[in-house]
Task: structure prediction
Amino acid sequence: MTKLYLYQARDAPLIAILRRQSKTIFELITWNTETDTFTRGQWLKHVVMNPKYLSISPDGTHFAYFYSSLKIHDKWSSHAVISKLPYFSATFHTKEHNGMWDQISFDIDGNFMHTNSTLDKKAPSELNQVLWNKDKLFSGFQSEPFNDSQGRLITTDEAKLLVNGSIILDTSDDVFAPLKPM
Result:
């Protein structure tokens, strides 16, 4: 069943929407709440993600996520990634690491935080790495109804996004279609 998860940027009128099509298929969408425009990004499939461990940068330009995928010989591979919204493509990512306790996120100043030093690519110039400090964590994850930058009430109902009780985006019938026939 399709479900939407929202991540509100603190310093910009942007919300990242993680759309879970199934347990292992996800889409990223960016919503500009000033213009009510949506930019659909990439799909990611055959991965497992826990939405509460994902985050948006305070300026709304980057997304931090952790995923696991099944590799050859039924072994799991896990990675932490920073991408430029609305895409999953890694600006940088970690080498294979040891599960969810090896997290990646943003601090309140917009620097990315990571719990170990297994970065596979160097951080882009606009982001700096800091040591993990839960007291300085900024995630933007919204699990309850909230007000956007214009004071409108934002809620979700499974695959529907509502503003002040009216549906603004309905992803119920939109299904994942691979680029190449299987």
Remarks:
- The longest strand covers residues 14-22.
- Residues 104 and 114 are 5 Å apart (CA to CA).
- Residues 177-182 have pLDDT under 50 and may be disordered.
